[in-house]
Write a structure and sequence with these properties.
The chain is α/β, with parallel strands linked by helices. The chain is 43% helix and 22% strand. Helix 5 (107-121) crosses helix 9.
Length: 246
């Protein structure tokens, strides 16, 4: 970087100053704006400073300007592209590699949840958990905590009560959990079992992304969840998780 000084008022003097791994904040923000919103960029810079990945360095003698400078810790992170354990918890207010699965706690649906978690999500590096916990009060708080933590919200919307029409309604809890997820800023992905009455599933299907499935041979439909999650991470410039299926 070069600055021009005129300390005596007679002849300007050009001076140069070097800072490795540093840029003015404006340069950093302008480079990121095509892909990220301004509030997200400012929040990311603040979190990286709190985590001691970034520091502020001064440049210039008269009216010095601030520079954002990578620390040794920040350079190691930039080289690896990975955050481990507590460091990831510090930077991410939501876990980009976690999915909350809303489901009915019935033996008939256990196989659906197990397949989605163990055969689809875990192999691609995505943690899957549900809202199971003991006690009503603990359930409410833990449910919201888990939803808030996970980037992804997937609802397995299955049959519960048969209607006079011969079609079915699902659990009222699943509709409420989907509403709570929306309130927390999530984008629900619904797995909708064939046979649900339009009155109970149709409005959700109109407003949110959904995948229909048949109970017999549900596996192919559920595998689509993994592909959509990986596409979302790529579209939002989030590093791909560590996969177990490669």
């Amino acid at each position: 970087m070069t600055s021009t000084l005129d300390p005596t008022g007679t002849a300007p003097v050009a001076t140069s100053h070097e800072q490795e791994d540093a840029r003015p904040p404006g340069h950093v923000i302008r480079a990121l704006l095509p892909n990220y919103s301004l509030p997200d960029i400012h929040a990311a810079i603040e979190w990286l400073e709190l985590g001691e990945y970034l520091s502020t360095a001064g440049w210039g003698l008269i009216m010095p300007r601030a520079l954002l400078k990578l620390t040794a810790k920040g350079k190691a992170f930039a080289d690896s592209g990975l955050l481990e354990g507590p460091e990831r918890d510090l930077v991410y207010q939501e876990d980009p590699y976690a999915a909350f699965i809303a489901r009915q706690f019935s033996p008939a649906d256990d196989a659906l949840f197990s397949f989605l978690g163990e055969e689809v999500l875990t192999p691609i590096g995505i943690k899957a958990f549900d809202g199971k916990v003991d006690g009503i009060e603990a359930f409410r708080g833990e449910l919201l905590r888990k939803m808030r933590l996970a980037r992804f919200f997937v609802c397995i919307l299955t049959r519960r009560a048969e209607l006079q029409s011969g079609r079915f309604a699902s659990s009222v809890w699943l509709y409420q959990e989907t509403g709570a997820a929306v309130a927390l800023g999530k984008k629900p992905l619904l797995l909708v079992e064939d046979g649900l009455d339009d009155h109970y599933a149709g409005e959700l299907q109109k407003n949110y992304e959904y995948i229909p499935f048949l109970r017999a041979g549900f596996e192919d439909a559920f595998r689509a969840v993994g592909r959509r999650i990986l596409n979302d991470l790529e579209a939002n410039h989030i590093p791909a998780p560590i996969r177990l299926d490669t």
